[in-house]
Write a structure and sequence with these properties.
By secondary structure, the protein is an alpha+beta fold. The protein has 17 helices and 20 strands. Helices cover 28% and strands 20% of the residues. It has a 5-stranded mixed sheet, with helices on both faces. A 5-stranded mixed sheet has the order 16-15-17-12-18. The relative contact order is 0.18.
Length: 553
């Protein structure tokens, strides 16, 4: 049930950017490298949106900075032992489970309306409708019914007895009293949602802050939510500024135009390392190893990439170890698969692809790419071995990685055409609707032990028919992978469960629906006066504890 979530100035300005401000700050200006593609919590996973939502919302359940599943909007996690979860049989005679949650009484929407089970039921109606565009519609579709006890307590009847039954992290509530009228035509909900048409409506938000202003492509202004009953946040306003050229983020930090660069989607690691050498004494700098998986999604509908021999050759032809050593000083380990070695389910014995251009050449020739013309391979039909490679424009680190790979692939006769786009277009349209014709370079952020249903199961391939729901952007369709994912969710005996994880990772690294590159380390460059930020290392942002952020000498 846990899904994925989509990184020279005057001396006086240096003092403003790094030292304690001369007076207590009311505003905090944060620089990020992406602007959200949209603001609806159910549609399109994107780190920039998740970052803002951490300050303006709370999930029902999520992972905290200690990698523990906790309640956000609920009072306690359901438990078989306590009787708030119980096994049952579905109408089809299959094993199911009923899980009961109670919403906290101290939360309300920003317009004063209580958050109730009406919102829960409505969110379920939206999420399970394939036309709504919900990113993790499978989570909602496996819920067969909801029993409402009262305004705060509800029971979900789920058609699978999953090992992670106590978490519903992607069940992100939307306000029934505002969104019901916008959902009369589900296929139009993506555009008609108040999150897009009336983003500053207080009734959409219920965190320590609410969205007060949106300037598309530029910035989002957050102001304190007067109805927030938790710990009062220190800053009266937080301004999140999108500066998609990551090189410009540094200049803005040093000039004092921004106070802090978000570690989750700010400076690239190579830039942070260079910055530390020049200005490290003026900031608190940390490199947080994370479950962020930098990779290349492959459009498997492309005839060239549909051949697994070509996919393996592409990976063997890239010297990822040298790239990470030269660009990132070894802080970003090479990824052999999608699961980080820090994760408890990591399989050490999965297939690996060390740099081996000779083997890559042999695989390409075996796949029929034998004839060289002007340095580029062609097949017997005279077709050119040419592939598009896209990523987020302005991200210096990714562009350097692109160029390094393009050069290495060229040596084997592979013509790579780089076609980059602004992040809001790349994520909001191109990737989500599978419009990339070849390869798409980006990162997934996941939670610990996250079962990759939304990205690898065949039922999660976005199509026009399901209004582009799901996150299997490669179009990967393998019954063996589907079976492994299905079994991983319900077979919980530790030894058997771990073997399934190992089998899944082996199959992934054999099939290569995506090319693994690195596991990111997120650089946090924090002014000495800004305290309370706790990097998490996974998809749930440090902003979920924004009320602890403060100015301090």
């Amino acid at each position: 049930m846990r899904g994925f979530r989509a990184i020279a100035a005057a001396s006086a300005a240096l003092i403003l950017g790094a030292g304690l401000p001369a007076h207590a700050k009311d505003d905090l200006v944060i620089g990020v490298s992406q602007f959200p593609g949209n603001f609806n919590p159910l549609i399109n996973a994107m780190v920039a949106k998740t970052y803002i939502h951490g300050m303006t919302r709370r999930p029902i359940t999520y992972y905290d900075a200690d990698w523990k599943l906790v309640c956000g909007l609920c009072t306690e996690l359901p438990s078989i032992e306590r009787g708030t979860a119980r096994y049952e049989t579905t109408a089809e005679g299959k094993p199911g489970i009923a899980v009961t949650y109670t919403l906290r009484s101290d939360y309300s929407w920003g317009d004063g309306k209580p958050i109730t089970t009406k919102d829960v039921v409505f969110t379920w109606e939206v999420g399970k409708n394939k036309k709504s565009g919900a990113g993790n519609f499978e989570l909602f579709s496996r819920i067969t019914s909801i029993d409402v006890k009262d305004d705060r307590t509800f029971t979900l009847h789920v058609n699978k007895r999953t090992c992670d039954y106590d978490g519903i992290n992607d069940f992100e509530l939307v306000p029934e009293h505002l969104e019901r009228k916008n959902f009369t035509e589900p296929a139009e909900y993506v555009n008609r949602s108040a999150y897009e048409t009336d983003t500053t409506n207080p009734g959409l938000w219920f965190g320590p802050y609410r969205v007060a202003q949106v300037v598309t492509g530029s910035h989002v202004v957050l102001e304190q939510n007067p109805l927030w009953k938790g710990k009062k946040p220190y800053f009266k306003r937080i301004i999140v500024r999108a500066i998609e050229n990551t090189g410009a983020l540094t200049a803005n930090l040093l000039s004092g135009s921004i106070d802090y660069i978000a570690g989750e989607l700010g400076l690239t690691l190579d830039q942070a390392l260079a910055f530390e050498k020049q200005h490290g004494k003026r900031f608190d700098i940390a490199y947080k190893p994370s479950l962020t998986y930098e990779h290349i999604d492959l459009n498997l509908d492309n005839p060239i990439l549909a051949d697994p021999r070509v996919r393996r050759a592409l990976l063997l032809a890239v010297d990822r170890k040298t790239i990470t050593e030269k660009l990132f000083e070894g802080h970003q380990p090479v990824a052999d698969g999608s699961i980080h070695p820090l994760d408890t389910v990591f399989h050490k014995g999965l297939p690996k692809y060390p740099y081996d251009p000779a083997r890559a050449k042999s695989l390409l020739e075996e796949a029929g790419w034998t004839e060289m013309r002007d340095g580029i391979r062609h097949n017997a039909k005279g077709e050119r071995l040419q592939i598009d490679l896209m990523t987020t424009a302005g991200n210096k680190s990714r562009e350097l990685v692109q160029q390094a790979m393009q050069s290495q692939w060229r040596k084997l006769g592979i013509d790579i055409r780089i076609r980059n786009e602004p992040a809001r277009v790349f994520f909001g349209e191109t990737v989500t609707k599978r419009k990339f014709k070849g390869m798409a370079l980006f990162a997934w952020m996941s939670s610990p032990e996250n079962i990759p249903r939304t990205t690898l199961h065949s039922t999660m391939i976005p199509t026009e028919a399901n209004n582009w729901s799901g996150q299997n952007y490669t179009g990967y369709d393998n019954p063996k992978m589907d079976k492994l994912i299905d079994e991983l969710e319900v077979l919980c005996e530790p030894k058997q469960h771990m073997q399934l994880w190992h089998d899944l990772q082996t199959l992934y690294s054999t099939d290569l629906p995506a090319l693994p590159l690195f596991f990111r380390a997120n650089p946090y460059i924090i002014p000495h006066w800004l305290k309370g930020i706790r990097p998490t290392g996974h998809q749930y942002s440090s902003t979920l504890t924004v009320e602890d952020w403060r100015v301090e000498k």
